[in-house]
Design a protein that fits this description.
The protein is of the alpha/beta class. It is about 20% helix and about 35% strand. It has a domain of about 80 residues: Immunoglobulin-like, CATH 2.60.40.420. Strands 2-1-4-6 form a four-stranded mixed β-sheet, with no helix packed on it.
């Protein structure tokens, strides 16, 4: 008798608990094409690729593969990283379409461009 009561209670409680968890912590839906991540490698005192074309709402990540620090800075002051040591990363999300030239403020001859469509 006690076993039946326990099984019956579990049959009611477990679905309720699962429903509560799903209501409190809904899965985050990912919509294709709304956001994408793209990487720019900093290596041998250059950006690769030098010009990168991405859709709007894309997050671009710069990764420093050089043995010296670099600072990513947009020409118009829209974004600027801290000094990136070897293997450090910096990310920025581009919302609006346009062309965004940038450079390394430590090594100003290092230049690149993000084109957002």
């Amino acid at each position: 008798m006690k076993r039946r009561l326990f099984v019956s209670t579990l049959a009611v409680v477990l679905p309720l608990a699962l429903s509560a968890v799903l209501l409190l912590y809904p899965a985050r839906a990912r919509s294709e094409g709304k956001s994408s991540a793209t990487e720019v490698q900093i290596d041998n005192f250059s950006f690769g690729p030098e010009t990168l074309t991405v859709p709007a709402n894309s997050t671009v990540t710069w990764v420093n593969k050089d043995d010296v620090p670099h600072v990513i800075a947009s020409n118009d002051g829209l974004f600027k990283s801290k000094a990136l040591d070897t293997d450090d990363k910096y990310s920025f999300t581009f919302i609006k379409a346009g062309t965004y030239p940038y450079y390394c403020s430590v090594h100003p001859k290092m230049v690149g461009k993000i084109v957002v469509q």
